[in-house]
Each structure stands twice: as structure tokens, then as C-alpha cells.
Amino acid sequence: MKLNIVEKVLVNNPLRALAQRHFEVPRLKALGGPCPGAVALEIGGGQGEGARLIQSEFGAQQVISLDLDFDMVSRARQRLGERDDILCLQADCTALPLADASVDALFDFGVVHHVPHWPAAIVELNRVARPGATLYAMEVYRSLICHPLWKRVLEHPQHNRFDQDEFIAAWQAHGWTLLGQKRLGSGLGWLAMQKERHPAALDKAQCA
After folding, report:
1. Which domain holds residue 60?
2. 129-140 and 103-109 as β-strands: parallel, antiparallel, unpaired?
3. Residue 181 forms beta bridges with which residues?
4. What is the structure's pLDDT at 161?
5. pLDDT tens per residue, range 184-204
6. How many separate domains does the chain show?
7. Residue 130 to residue 108: CA distance in whole angstroms
8. pLDDT at 147 over 60
9. Which residues contact 80 (CB under 8 A, 6 or more apart)?
10. Could you give the angle at the alpha carbon of 107 between the alpha carbons of 12 and 91, nearest 5°?
11. Using CA atoms, how far apart are residues 130 and 195, in angstroms rounded to an integer?
């Protein structure tokens, strides 16, 4: 779902960019390492700060930055300018306009918890990820999303929300292995995971 006006102010605030650069990115990089030369997909790319960091801090060669809100896509295009190495598109992460096994790295800077049917987003992200791809995720979890105070201010789906263990398990069900994780209480967390390099072998094991 799209952000409300309060959330747009928060994510477009310079303080948000500073937190992303100095707090979130170092943790994700420590957990999953860099991805030099990668084709990276960022969901919920917002105004484009994440795409810049994916290149400058992780070493991705090309970034595909998607957002459901065309206003945010327009902001990103204006900030980043015309360039071949960052592509900003309007798209729904439950119906990605990308080919199977086409990206090397997935970036989720607190986006999946906005998706009403979030397991469908994981199915799609898994589909476009190549074997051996890395997931870098910072997520907000049920205890914070469903807190009475935040429910009054921010608009999030309230049904079928998840915690970090459930989020990890959803990826593991598609053959992803946990590389590392950090938590801030029960409401925030960072994690890195890697997709099975031999999905055919996984399929055979599941059918046995």
C-alpha cells in the first residue's frame, strides 16, 4: 500500500537519509557483505537515496529501483537525473516486471511490512532472484506496526503481520539460508539471506 502524508514526510526527510546511510546500511553490509558488480533490485525505492547507497556502499553495477507510488518514482528520477546504471520504475512488488532469475541482490529497506499480502511479495522476489542471490532486509514487525500509538499515526496493514522469525521462515521455505541477523527489540530487525545455488537439487529433496 502507498504511504500516507505523514509517512512521506518521514521517508523524504534528510534525517531518514542519514539514518539509512549511517545506521541501516552498515548493519546490512556487515551481515551480507558487498555485492560488487551486481544487478540489484530495490523495492520501495522512494526518492532514490537507497539506490545511491546500493551502488556506493555495496558496489552494485546496476540498480533497479521500484516504487508503487508514481510520485515517489518522479522524485527519484528528478534527484538522480538521467543515468543508465539506475532505473526507477513504478511497479507492485507482488507483480514484478522482471524476468525470472534476473537479479543478483534484493534490497528491502522497510517495505515488505507495507504489503497487504506480503507472502506474495516474497514469491515474486524469489522468482526474479538468481541462484546465489543475496537478500538485504531491514524490516518493521508486528509489535510495532500494531501498537495502538503507531496505528493512529501511520497506515499499515494490520492483518497477518509478522515478526523476524516468521519473516526468515518465509524465505527459508523458498530455499534461502540465513547469513546473519540483528534485532532492536521485537519491532525492528536487519537480516541477510542467500538463495540456494542449486534450486533443482532443492526441488528434488522436497519431492523425495
Report:
1. 5-207
2. parallel
3. 191
4. 80
5. 987 899 999 999 987 554 444
6. 1
7. 17
8. no
9. 48, 51, 52, 86, 88
10. 70
11. 8
164: CATH: 3.40.50.150
Q: Which three cell numbers stand for residue 60?
A: 552494485
- The 3-state secondary structure of the chain reads CCCCHHHHHHHCCHHHHHHHHHHHHHHHHHHHCCCCCCEEEEECCCCCHHHHHHHHCCCCCEEEEEECCHHHHHHHHHHHCCCCCEEEEECCCCCCCCCCCCEEEEEEECCHHHCCCHHHHHHHHHHHEEEEEEEEEEEECHHHHCCHHHHHHCCCCCCCCCCHHHHHHHHHCCCEEEEEEEEECCCEEEEEEEECCCHHHHHHHHHC
User: What is the pLDDT averaged over residues 166-187?
Assistant: 95
Question: pLDDT tens, 15-67?
Answer: 878 889 999 999 999 999 999 999 999 999 999 999 999 999 999 999 999 99
Q: Grid coordinates standing for 71? A: 510520485
With a CB cutoff of 8 Å and minimum separation 6, the contacts of 9 are none
Q: What is the pTM of this model?
A: 0.85
User: In this model, does residue 86 exceed pLDDT 70?
Assistant: yes
